[in-house]
Design goal:
This protein is mainly β. The chain has one domain: Porin. Helix content is 0%, strand content 61%. The protein has no helices and eight strands. Strands 1-2-3-4-5-6-7-8 form an eight-stranded antiparallel β-barrel. It starts with 18 loop residues before the first strand and ends with a strand. The mean pLDDT is 88.
Length: 169
Amino acid sequence: MAGRLNTKPIEKPGNLEKSNNLYFMLGYGDHQIVEHEFDTNYYAIAGIGAYYSWQHSKAFRSGPGIDFNFWWGLTANPEGTPGPVGIDNLTVGLVYAPELIIDKFSIITGFGIYAKHHLYGNFKQTYQRAGLKYQFTDKFSAGFNVRAINFMLAEFLEFNVGYTIKRKR
C-alpha cells in the first residue's frame, strides 16, 4: 500500500518587482589608434554615463542616457606618439539603451550618436553598444560592453561598474 500523495497547495512565486531606474556607470577600456591595421599603440579611454530606464515588462527595460568619455588617443600624433591632451579628447554621446533582464544578468544594448567627437564631428556618427551586466546587489553591478560604429567596426571593449537608484512602480 502506497502512502498518500502530498496535496498541500504550492505557493505561487511572486511577481518581479517593477521599477524605473537611474543608473550610473564608470567605464574603462583601451583604443587602438589605427583600427584598420595591426597596431601596437593603445590608448586608455575612461568614461562615465548616466541612464534612466523605464521597465516595460518583467524582463525588459529601456531608456535614454548620456556618455562622457575621455579618449587619450583622439589627439595622438600620426606616428602614434601622444599628442596634446585637452577638450578635444572628450566625447559626448546621446544613447537609447534597451536591456533584457535574466535574473541577475542583463543583456545590454545601446544605439547612440556622438554629440561631440573630435574626429567624427558633432552629430555626424552613430555608435552601438552590446554587452553583459551582472547585478551583485540591488545597487551595484559590473559588466563589459563592446562599442562599435556602423554595426561592424569595434572601437573599444569597455569594462564597467555601476550604481543603480530604483524607483518602485
